[in-house]
Structure formats: structure tokens, C-alpha cells
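Fold Annotation — chain and its backbone

Fields — amino acid sequence, C-alpha cells

___
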Amino acid sequence: MNARVGELFDAARADAGLLQTALRVEQVAALAYVAAADGSLQGDERAQALRFAEHERRHAAAFETMLFALTVPVREHAGPEDLDELLPSLRASGRRTALRELAELEGAAIAGHQLMGRRLLALDALRTVAAVMAGGAQHLVVLRHALGETPLTNAYETGH
């Protein structure tokens, strides 16, 4: 999955293509969080997934706005088939696997955002990418904590 998202970003050649790819990945992330909430996640994790889905929809809207600013119309939106293409086992997965797949998707999106940071020419779009990437990083910390992994922030807080 991580490789598939990377391939999507690598294939984009211009600002519009990078933003279209980022839009698709954010839309799939929103669908993924809803699917996990409707599947194996319960209680606080389910509620968190639904909050994150809303964040991802807002990230997608930000990228869509950037595309409109470049006069690029958005004619398609990600659907269930896109979710199944990037995360084929998410819907049937257990709690731990769902959290792991969501974390991998966030990690892949962040890697894509980093690539965008190196390749984008439009400064306003770069600012948007930075804000979205920060949100994804926050999601990743929460997901890693739920998986019992040491959050990335721990190294900055303790030096270990």
C-alpha cells in the first residue's frame, strides 16, 4: 500500500498533478477512517476515527481549493473502489490491522507531502501542503500510540 501511494505521487509531473494526487489520497483517507469506524474500531477509537475522517475531508477540500485556484476542475472524487485499491483488506480487518493500515496510509501521505514540498512551484499550495502534512503527522502519533508504539514525539520530549 505504501508503495502504491508513492507511485501515485511519483507519477505526478506538475503542480496540478501533485495536488490531484494529494486530493485523491486525502479522500481515500477519509473513506478509510469511516470504514475502520464502521468495522473493527469501537468506543474512543471509533470516535477518533470519525473525527479524523472529518479532518481528512477538510484536507481534501483544501487541496480542491488549490486546484480551483490553478483553474483545474475536479470532476472525480474517490469512492469505495479507490479505498479497496489502496487498502484492500481494511474493511475485513481486525482492530490492530485496521490501525496499522491507517498508520501506513498516513505515513505514505506524509511521504507524498514531503515530495510535494520539493517539487511544487506554487507557494500558496506549498503552505497548504505543510498544514495538511502537520495534521497527518498528528494522526500518525495517535495511531502509533493506539498500537502501543512509542510516539515520534517521545524522542523530542525525552531525548530517547
